[in-house]
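Comment thread on ticket #2218

A.B. wrote:
> Attaching the input chain for the structure job we discussed in standup.
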Amino acid sequence: MNLALFAWRPFAMGALVALIYGTALFGSTYLLPVYMQMGLGLSASLVGSILLPSGLVLALAIPLAARAADRQPASGLVSMGLSLLALSFAAMVVIGLQSSLWLLMAITVIGRIGLGFILPSLNLGAMRGLDKALIPQGSSTINFVRMLGGAAGVSLCGILLEWRLVARGASLTDGPPSAARLAAFDDVFLILAALCGLAMLAARHLNQPVQPPERIA
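C.D. wrote:
> Ran it. Output below, let me know if you need it in another format.
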């Protein structure tokens, strides 16, 4: 890894956003099915049916966002995506044991739209202005940092969930779904929303006009 990449502030801030993006993407991919099954008491087949539309929406959102990234500032698109993702996490607190499944589906779709806006815009914004010789390394580094965030995100969500379950006096497996168990999940979703807010601060620097680094042999 060529550390000269991180002398380019938009790239350094993009790497931070990629780290948090990976944490939110993989963490929520782990957390949402557990939440629906253990927190809401839904069956595995029903959980799959709820999550299927959000996956399809994500697949459609990515190419649309890629087209927009060629014409719009990367920081604006990334911030919009992070805002939608944070909104979807924060909105989980309104879900209760008697809530409509359509509401739950709509919230997950909003989050996936946000994820779709982030990925292509983030890569373009982080690497725009880099020396051509650094672009292949920049792409590899962004992908590595995103996967690193993903690995950390799954572990982080598991640790946070266990912590909040203990703090709420609840258990993930003992007894039927309860308000205390849902509250523990809500705490973790709010922490993920706060991480997205932190990433929004970093995303503001993606378009900063500073001198890019020179290639280091």
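A.B. wrote:
> Thanks. Noting for the ticket: Residues 5 and 11 are 7 Å apart (CA to CA).
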